[in-house]
TrEMBL record:
This is Peptidoglycan glycosyltransferase MrdB. It catalyses: [GlcNAc-(1->4)-Mur2Ac(oyl-L-Ala-gamma-D-Glu-L-Lys-D-Ala-D-Ala)](n)-di-trans,octa-cis-undecaprenyl diphosphate + beta-D-GlcNAc-(1->4)-Mur2Ac(oyl-L-Ala-gamma-D-Glu-L-Lys-D-Ala-D-Ala)-di-trans,octa-cis-undecaprenyl diphosphate = [GlcNAc-(1->4)-Mur2Ac(oyl-L-Ala-gamma-D-Glu-L-Lys-D-Ala-D-Ala)](n+1)-di-trans,octa-cis-undecaprenyl diphosphate + di-trans,octa-cis-undecaprenyl diphosphate + H(+). Peptidoglycan polymerase that is essential for cell wall elongation. InterPro entries: FtsW/RodA, RodA/MrdB. HAMAP family: PGT_RodA. The chain crosses the membrane at residues 16-36, 42-63, 70-92, 159-176, 183-201, 271-291, 303-325, 345-362. Keywords: Cell inner membrane, Cell membrane, Cell shape, Cell wall biogenesis/degradation, Glycosyltransferase, Membrane, Peptidoglycan synthesis, Transferase, Transmembrane, Transmembrane helix. Its EC number is 2.4.99.28. PANTHER family: CELL CYCLE PROTEIN (PTHR30474), PEPTIDOGLYCAN GLYCOSYLTRANSFERASE MRDB (PTHR30474:SF1). It comes from Pelagerythrobacter marinus.
Amino acid sequence: MNSVVPAPIARQPWGMLIPLFMLVGFGAMVLFSAAGGNWKPFAIPHLVRFAVFLAMAGVMTLFSRDLVRLLAYPGYALVLAMLVAVEAMGFVGGGSQRWLDLGVIQLQPSELMKPAIVLVLARFYSGLPPSMTTSWRALVPAGVLIALPMGLVLLQPDLGTTLAIAFGGVVVMFLAGLPLRWFAAGAIGAMIVAPIAYFFGLHDYQRRRVTTFLDPESDPLGAGYHITQSKIAIGSGGLTGKGFNEGSQSHLNYLPEPHTDFVFATMAEEWGLLGGLAVILIFGLILRWGLQVAHRSQDRFAKLLAAGMVATIFFYVAINLMMVMGLAPVVGIPLPFMSHGGSSMLTNMICIGSLMMVNRWNRQAPQSRFR
């Protein structure tokens, strides 16, 4: 087979790329329908962005381990500075100040912090002697690295992205081998702080999202409108759906944000339960490949980096699916590779590019090395 297929093509991770292409292509079809049967303004930009960021991911695979380790702290500092710049001169959209207007693109730096926090923590723990993972030196510096961007993102305000940053950071800390009692203590502390944060730390609209999640039918035309319409769209799709480009909830503007946060509901109405299961299966194949890359990694840095990137994609998928089905509050987390949005696509393709990069490291490293 290698004599027929050129080596650069044969060595690509097709076990991940083929499902990814299927997911992006299916997403373009859903966005075509969300626009009322038009390729613009959602589907074509979606495909163009994917092509551009796929090329970026391909370039990332060429990076060496030493270069990536060298760039970890400067990259984190750069994204942190961008978050500070958002507070000073950020672009306001949808009532929140989350973007930097760079002319060619409106960049959301908080999205970039999701892979950046994974990278910097993987670098930090790879340089920490294993004997120190039970000391304060393994906890305090990492806690500061996570807390700084979380605080800046909360000021925007963006609770969903704040939780995503925390999730990626905690996963890397857990995999680095920190004592379980610290995580138990953190969970207890979170349960104590949660009521205080709810009453004094959240904005009114964020508190309404929590109460609406618990009882969306109490205000079906107000705070509960998003979840109610999403559940109606998903449920009305039945087993096989209403048919491509035949969704009434999105076409009649009952379903809010049918091309971004609620793109899964748009898809489920037209493709039904079978379409939803197919999407979940494809995500499962991509995440499974990422976990295999992490498992095959022979050094601590690569293993933590790969596992953290998988966790970041998983958080996107899990929270979005739970959100549109009424199992979690609406927090503005888009569905990877299907939702319309440049910053989200950039973040998730950075994760994919990082996994492809680690996969190349694994192929080049002797199996006994770095043990």
